[in-house]
Amino acid sequence: MLRLSKLTDYGIVLLARLARDGSRESRNARELAAGTELPVPVVSKVLKQLARGGVLESQRGARGGYSLALPAQRISVAAVIGALEGPVAITECASGPSVCSHEGTCAVRDPVHVLNNVVREALATVSLADLIDPAFSALGDTSESLQILGRTPARAVVAPE
Amino acid sequence: MLRLSKLTDYGIVLLARLARDGSRESRNARELAAGTELPVPVVSKVLKQLARGGVLESQRGARGGYSLALPAQRISVAAVIGALEGPVAITECASGPSVCSHEGTCAVRDPVHVLNNVVREALATVSLADLIDPAFSALGDTSESLQILGRTPARAVVAPE
DNA sequence: GATTTACAGGACCGAAATGGTCCGATATAG
DNA sequence: CTATATCGGACCATTTCGGTCCTGTAAATC
After folding, report:
1. Cβ distance A151 to A98 under 8 Å?
2. How far is B87 from chain A (nearest CA, A)?
3. A19 contacts A96 by C-beta, under 8 angstroms
4. For residue B160, with 0-12 CB atoms within 10 Å meaning exposed, 13-18 middle and 19 or more buried, which class applies?
């Protein structure tokens, strides 16, 4: 478990496609839907949210569409998640000032925050550019994949809420 | 987002308490509920699932209760998640043989698997012993927390399903 | 062996989140 | 002015989640 929402999944798919095709041209929701075999309304919804989150830039009107707001290297998976479902927070209290009734008695508040940080940093380290790089996929299921966490994080845009 | 269920959150709290008090004695659901200020039925449910997952050992009958099935160092957070909500799988298709209709056309199947692996490995690296270690909490929100990923993973029990 | 204690397993239900669709408003190109 | 696309939100069916409760079984005590 610890699952991303489907919307976020779609977002990753769509952004990978935009990154792969080069960010030269902006593409509209219809084209992207056709390319990914997803329903147009869904694609539209996802792209809108990504634009609100600062991951995409939008062009309205005829011949409008979407394009990456930054180079693919600088857009992290954490930023995509942030735009579509809010900042990475494995528990409610990890997201910020908590309204948790166990505030005082909770013995794991601090370590859980660190744990959350580990996950968030890990996802901040993987960029859109990585996702379309065959060398990244070649890491497979091996524990070598943790090597990438030694790199400089993508440190991309942060989404609003 | 990317949130753990509350049940899993509770599980971490309960296991941390068991680990802290030493695994010498087994404690029952009522005592653990009292110590954590959680409802007894909820605590009971969580403990049962943790026992099914092999994280806890249970003793039935009078003077029964639960105790850690392994040393705290060898129980990873990933194992706890595995026992309570299934293996870490950030997307549906990351969990195993997918029934995803986009199987053929999906361009990010492989990189998403790697991404899933990164998260899973990161959580496999943090053990119950870490959660009750002040030095771990001291890492705070800094990116130093990624240092711990260089260590040998906890490699703990794997939960069924 | 009767009784009490405590886990095992699952049914159950209300509340909340999710996935997906659709609509009116607004901005832009031609 | 018209066609095209995004913007912002409402809307709803379905699923999931959080929590409770009940029946059965194992173990200890007296």
Report:
1. no
2. 6
3. no
4. exposed
Under DSSP, the state recorded for B56 is E
Q: Which residue has the tokens 């699932």?
A: B49
Q: Which residues touch strand D (CB under 7 A)?
A: A 1, 28-30, 44-45, 47-48, 51-52, 58-66; B 5-7, 10, 39, 41-42, 44-45, 59-64, 85
Dihedral sign for Cα atoms in the order A18, A157, A54, A40: positive
**pLDDT tens string A78-117:** 999 999 999 999 998 887 666 677 877 888 999 999 999 9
- CA distance linking residue A71 with residue A22, whole number of Å: 10
Residues in chain B: 161
The alpha carbon torsion through B139, B141, B142, B145 (nearest 10 deg) reads: 50
In the structure encoding, which two tokens stand for residue A93, read together? Answer: 């209290």
User: What is the pLDDT, as a whole number, of residue A72?
Assistant: 94
Q: Which residues make beta-bridge pairs with B127?
A: B76
What integer pLDDT is reported at residue A161 of this predicted model? Answer: 40
The CA-based dihedral angle spanning residues B151, B154, B155, B157, taken in that order and rounded to the nearest 10 degrees: -170
Mean pLDDT, range B35-53, rounded to an integer? 96
Chain A closest CA to B5's CA: distance in Å? 8
The residues near B43 (Cβ < 8 Å, ≥ 6 apart) are: B10, B14, B29, B32, B33, B36
**Cα separation, B56 vs B75, whole angstroms:** 10
Q: Where are the alpha helices (DSSP H) in chain B?
A: 6-20, 29-36, 40-52, 77-85, 109-125, 128-131, 134-137
Q: Is the pLDDT of residue B39 over 90?
A: yes
Task: Reduce the DSSP state of residue A96 to 3 states and report it.
Answer: coil
Q: pLDDT tens across B126-139, in order? A: 999 999 999 999 98
Give the residues of chain A that fall short of pLDDT 70: 23-25, 96-99, 143, 150-161
